[in-house]
Amino acid sequence: MGQGIQGGAGQYPAETEVRVEADAGAHSWTNAEPNTLMEQVLERPNLMRAYQRVVSNKGAAGIDQMPVTALKGHLQQHWPTLRERLLAGDYHPQPVRRVSIPKPQGGERVLGIPTVQDRLIQQALHQVLSPMLEPTFSDHSYGFRPGRSAHQAVKAMQRHINDGHRWVVDLDLAQFFDRVNHDVLMGLLARRITDRRILILIRRYLQAGMLEGGLVSPRREGTPQGGPLSPLLSNVLLTELDRELERRGHRFCRYADDCNIYVSSKRAGERVMVSITHFLETRLRLTVNTAKSAVDRPWRRSFLGYSVSWHKQVRLRIAPKSLKAFMTKLRPLLKRSRGQSLPTTIRNLNPVLRGWANYYRLTASKRPVQALDGWIRRRLRLILWQQWKRPRTRARCLMRLGLPAPRAWMGATNGRGPWWNSGASHMNAALPKRVFNGLSLVSLLDTMTRLPGQP
Predict the structure, then answer these.
(1) Per the confidence metrics, is the pTM higher than 0.85?
(2) Which of 174, 269, 329, 427 sits at a 20 to 30 Å CA gap from 258?
(3) How many Cβ atoms sit within 10 Å of the Cβ of residue 351?
């Protein structure tokens, strides 16, 4: 990588004008200007940071099948030409590779995976543009921003409700990342970015086709998730929604395309729903999913996986559908572990449990977490019961775990199914919680209690 990217004033072309054919017509550039945005994007320190970020993120290959590990050699060979094309404004990104992943609540999310070369360029753009655009964003926006998090958004939600705004306008934008209007977005960017080469390059990224089944389909709207620029561009567009809500004096929280507005009555919420839907559809050309949006009590809705209690001083709790989604995620992980030893299964499971506990550590309701811990231990007992297979083996294993012979034989030969036995008294007595603690199984409840930030 060290010889692949050349920077510094000595590497810029002489003061010659380069003609750039763009969507808006032909433009003339003098490439000797060292302080324009494109030159900042292509400075060596910025590119080195972008390279390190792309490599550390790993990620799948794009349509050219080039892995991240091949990026260094590719740049050593092609960077001088690539750099000149970027400076001249005639670089065209490759199409993205279409990938579908399941959503936690059902359905699919479409990702557009750029080539690693385009990921590098997008990341370099992001690192220069983000500090410029960040000061223009709203204090009520929390997603995809440095120093901001989903936990801050959830706590803001709690404050709004505790302040008496006990109705929520829950807005769901239909397929937001696939529906972003390019002209509206580019108009907003043009207010803040003066280097037209940057604007032209961003538009080309927006319009890069998507490859699926060997065919490239053109794209006239949307900024598919999968590239480093998409989150930043989404905030540029939705800041217009933030400013409109601030102008009207509303209490709200927005995390990416999840936006909740808090009002004091159902009638007020219905008025806001109508007027903001009109604003989104006419000004930003976005579509509100009326089937998923609603004016409702906040304890009947969820925001970023959390909900609230209905008490006078509301407390955060895990939304029921989040608990269900996590159990759905764990089932295939546990099924794949049936041929493994219990310590190996637990080692594979622990990072997932630890990450989930960290995210939901703000919950004040511990009973569902305790029940989930018990369910996980029962699933692990089920794996063992199925591995033991025969009554004789089951009886011997139960005795080895400390059960008296009569009780072990009675449990092993009861004729009941595996799931029933995994929750029966003989398996609970042979494999109590302390056994799993000894195997270092992460307890969700214990982890959440120890983590900082507990209410």
Answers:
(1) no
(2) 329
(3) 10
